[in-house]
Amino acid sequence: MKICFISGQKNEGKCGITDYIDLIARKLEKLGHEIEWWFIINKSCENLAKLPTADLYSIQFAPYAYATNGMPNQILKYLTKKLQNEKVHLNFHEIWVGAYPRANWMEKRIGWLQKKLILNFIHQCKPTWITSSNSAAIDRLKNAGVQVNFLYLFGNIPYSSTSKVAGAGQNLKIAFFGTLYADFPYEKLDEFFSVLSKTSAKKLEIILIGRQRENAGTEKVLFICKKEGYSIERTGKLSTKLISEQLQECSLGVSTTPYDVIGKSGATAAMLEHGLPVLVNDDGDTPQQNLIVHDPFQDQIFLLNENSSAKRLLQFIDKPRKSFFDGVAHTANKMLELVI
Q: Cβ neighbours of residue 76 under 8 Å, at least 6 residues apart?
């Protein structure tokens, strides 16, 4: 089968969608499929005029990847014209903005326009399959009358077999990997760390893995470490091999991405795939009954909001480490199951 991926401009190592397509495309090629990858260059339709013939067109969508202002009106019109009689898979990495309770009036206004544009595109293009990887997007799409399936977004850190997996020791090594968002409840995290240290009778070692894009969140973690006397290490940019080795040496991961959107975090996926339990916060933006945790990781997610999490977390850490989960292979096969 010939599959043509359509995405925003290629930006290796700096764009999660680029890394996602690169990894899944290579896996699909190994499975015997022919892959084309078409980019929306400079947020214009020009390159789309040369779209190749394919059995399936997989649109990897995020509004701001297609238009600087998040309103890719002309691009979606052009895609509708080109693809309305073709087999189309529409995968939402992001939907419209402002679809959460605390959104300001500007976000809600822009989001209303984006939602109208996206729903109109779905109505006219009529994609055969629509997917997303996170609970919030799936909840909002279903509320808008869209039939959408869950498709797991994998991590972009392959397993390195040269590292020694963390075992029981005198300290608990805790990984922060991915963006440290400023609006995460760091005060609650401070309290949780204190309970974790006292309950386990172990000192905490904090490690910030990779580049950190948001200084406000980083500063809050540094403040906690200084106040509580936790040791801290900042690795800076690392190769994927070294990141894998660091993750294997840790006992716990922390994701500052809200619980209902961790499905779009490749960094959180990488921690889970490496067998780490991951501490997350539920901000309540999506109804609890609509929250999705991928089946292989049901026992690895621990909520900062739950008082029993610290004890259960330590019990999980004492167990043998789970084997590496090959998310790329999993998602490639699930995508094929969906479209064939």
A: 66, 117, 118, 120, 121, 125
> Could you read off the pLDDT of 189-243 as tens digits, one per residue?
999 999 999 999 999 999 999 987 667 999 999 999 999 999 999 999 999 999 9
Joined tokens for residue 45: 């339709």
**Tens digits of per-residue pLDDT, 315-330?**
999 999 999 999 999 9
3-state secondary structure of 285: coil
Query: Please, are residues 102 and 64 in contact by the beta-carbon 8 Å criterion?
Result: no
Q: What is the CATH number of the domain that holds 62?
A: 3.40.50.2000
Residue 303 CB contacts under 8 Å (≥ 6 apart), including other chains: 259, 279, 280, 281, 282, 309
**Angle at 318 (CA atoms; ends 316, 321), nearest 5 degrees:** 75
If DSSP codes are grouped into helix, strand and coil, which group holds residue 139? Answer: helix
Q: Do residues 22 and 44 share a domain?
A: yes
d(CA 149, CA 297): 18
Nearest to 23 by CA among 177, 160, 210, 158: 158
Kindly state whether residue 47 falls inside one of the protein's structural domains.
yes
Q: Domain containing 54: what range? A: 2-154+330-339
Looking at residue 9, its pLDDT comes to: 84
| 3-state SS class at 95 | coil
Phi, then psi, of 100 in degrees rounded to 5: -145, 155
Summarize the confidence of residues 128-138 as an average pLDDT: 97
- Is this model's pTM higher than 0.90 or not? yes
Q: Detail the DSSP E strand segments found in 154-311.
A: 171-177, 203-209, 231-236, 252-254, 278-280, 301-303
Residues 273, 296: Cα–Cα separation, whole Å: 9
List all residues 6 or more positions away from 55 whose beta carbon is below 8 Å from its beta carbon: 1, 2, 3, 87
CB contact at 8 A, 155 and 327: yes
